[in-house]
């Protein structure tokens, strides 16, 4: 019995030491931060919460069903060959442009500023990224050294498929400012980003940044990077407005009335980057189904929709191109203009000539 107790104590000690020293997990907000969070309408019961409760607690039967579906598998959960990529154009002068790098990582150039959204450039969204299969494209269509100076990295939340330790470590020296939801700054500080280069925001806060008008807006999701930090940091969507273009970035979210509220306050948008992927009816409260992606685009009063959160990783049970296939069908039925540029292709955001956007259905290939 004594030996068993000693072994258990040692294992607990090793676990605690690992959780506190392994940098990929980030850092929980401090007590000073938590006192500051108490002023947020989203903070209650010592954590951030959705105003519309998200059902994420799976019962035993549901859990068994998910495990069964995962084991059963499908030959189409990953593409049969690496996805095509194009070399991006890193020109921050002149036109407003968007370059999608797979999943939610995107580069926006607007009014001469370069903004990186959720820059996950790693091979696998996990605390142990060397385990598991590589991203669908096999990599990213550029070398990190080729990135221009980044005026701001804008983050939606701290999940591994959006906030990647390895990517931040490689790009942080190129970034002037990190603009993030409440609490996410603690991770960045642990990774060596100066606190003075970070600003945190709550929902419905308007932000002026070097001539751009941003807004931190709601999303129905959750946060967490380890076993006991769910809700320790906030999650959000973002409004980005320049002199001649307006863009909405949805982050991750289930479908609620907040999309219409955002559209009423900040719309219309020339382009929306809308979450579309990693969904399932069993967790529809925290991820949009493809048909809801199109409706959310309409709710925020978007003109052109670029579906994101797909095309890089298998994080759900659906086929790899099911998100864009279903979204394209729903978009056609509702008269929504949807663009699907290949990974790395830089597109110009236009406020009037929507017919000139690229129309290649590369994702329909086997």
TrEMBL record:
What are the GO MF terms of this UniProt record? N-acylphosphatidylethanolamine-specific phospholipase D activity; zinc ion binding
Gene3D superfamilies assigned: Ribonuclease Z/Hydroxyacylglutathione hydrolase-like
Annotated keywords: Membrane, Transmembrane, Transmembrane helix
Q: Where is the signal peptide?
A: none
- Reaction catalysed? 3',5'-cyclic UMP + H2O = UMP + H(+); 3',5'-cyclic CMP + H2O = CMP + H(+)
Pfam families xrefs? Lactamase_B_2
Q: Say if the entry is tagged with keyword Nucleus.
A: no
**Xref: InterPro entries:** Metallo-B-lactamas, NAPE-PLD, RibonucZ/Hydroxyglut_hydro
Give all residue intervals belonging to the Metallo-beta-lactamase domain.
115-310
* TM annotation in the entry: 6-25
Q: Which GO terms describe its cellular component?
A: cytoplasm
Q: What does this protein do?
A: Counteracts the endogenous Pycsar antiviral defense system. Phosphodiesterase that enables metal-dependent hydrolysis of host cyclic nucleotide Pycsar defense signals such as cCMP and cUMP.
Record PANTHER family = N-ACYL-PHOSPHATIDYLETHANOLAMINE-HYDROLYZING PHOSPHOLIPASE D
What is the protein name stated in its UniProt record?
Metallo-beta-lactamase domain-containing protein
The species is: Paenibacillus oryzisoli
């Amino acid at each position: 019995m004594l030996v068993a107790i000693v072994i258990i104590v040692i294992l607990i000690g090793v676990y605690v030491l690992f959780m506190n020293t392994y940098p990929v997990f980030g850092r929980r907000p401090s007590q000073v931060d938590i006192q500051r969070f108490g002023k947020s309408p989203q903070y209650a019961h010592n954590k951030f919460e959705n105003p519309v409760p998200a059902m994420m607690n799976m019962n035993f039967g549901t859990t068994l069903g998910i495990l069964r579906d995962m084991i059963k598998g499908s030959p189409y959960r990953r593409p049969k060959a690496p996805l095509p990529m194009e070399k991006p154009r890193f020109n921050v002068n002149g036109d407003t442009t968007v370059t999608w790098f797979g999943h939610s990582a995107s580069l926006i150039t607007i009014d001469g500023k370069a903004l990186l959204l959720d820059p996950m450039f790693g091979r696998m969204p996990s605390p142990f990224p060397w385990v598991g299969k590589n991203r669908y494209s096999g990599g990213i269509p550029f070398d990190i050294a080729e990135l221009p100076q980044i005026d701001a990295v804008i983050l939606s939340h701290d999940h591994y498929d959006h906030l990647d330790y390895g990517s931040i470590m490689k790009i942080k020296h190129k970034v002037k400012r990190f603009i993030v939801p409440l609490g996410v700054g603690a991770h960045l500080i642990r990774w060596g980003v100066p606190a003075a280069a970070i600003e945190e925001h709550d929902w419905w806060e308007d932000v002026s940044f070097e001539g751009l008008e941003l807004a931190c807006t709601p999303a129905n999701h959750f946060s967490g990077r380890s076993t006991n930090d769910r809700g320790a940091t906030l999650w959000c969507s973002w409004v980005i407005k320049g002199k001649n273009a307006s863009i909405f970035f949805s982050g991750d979210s289930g479908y609620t009335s907040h999309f219409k509220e955002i559209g009423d306050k900040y719309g219309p948008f020339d382009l929306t980057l809308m979450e579309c992927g990693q969904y399932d009816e069993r967790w529809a409260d925290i991820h949009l189904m493809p048909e809801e992606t199109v409706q959310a685009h309409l709710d925020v009063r978007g003109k052109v929709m670029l579906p994101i959160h797909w095309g890089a990783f298998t994080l759900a049970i659906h086929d790899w191109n099911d998100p864009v296939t279903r979204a394209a069908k729903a978009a056609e039925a509702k008269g929504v203009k949807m663009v699907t540029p290949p990974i790395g292709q830089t597109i110009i955001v236009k406020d009037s000539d929507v017919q000139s956007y690229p129309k290649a259905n590369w994702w329909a290939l086997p």
